[in-house]
Design a protein that fits this description.
Porin, mainly beta, eight-stranded antiparallel β-barrel, 10 strands, elongated
Length: 185
Amino acid sequence: MLASLNAAPLLAQGTARWGVVAGFGIGRGSADVHCAGCSSSDIGGPSMTARVGGALREDLSLVAELDAFSGSKYVNFATNSSSLEALNVVAQWYPRGPSGYFVSAGLGGGRVGSSSGQLFSEYQSPIGPAYKVGVGYDIKVAKTLAITPFASFVYVAGGIPKGLTEKLSGSVIVAGVNANLNTMY
């Protein structure tokens, strides 16, 4: 799943960042799921991200971010599918101050799913550790709104699902666009 990276505490380009930040974004991702008996890797599909948090300083925000990815591909007369969901606490840093460019990193938890039509098998990992890293650029389009192109990488360690003896884990690389609303100035 995943999608996506971080959008930001809006207000880039010369405006102070502070207050509550909320955003939603969509993107396209490529996932790689690992376990014995799981569907094949490198599955592409849509992703989404939702976030809420606040600015700690003009150049630093802390947000809770939900990322989700779902994709499938047809292989050897069967459809293989993968999904990934992660909830991370993400720090977003603007190294150039009022510029809209940022880097982000976060930790949290998530789960991975895999199914194969050929093997008639479906697995969902228990919740396990997750992390996220990314980059993006806020483009301010109104006083309280920014559009943010981004790229991110999300990894979920997952766990051992029922019916397997090996851990189910996965990662997704996502590129997309977020719309971010900063509610306080």
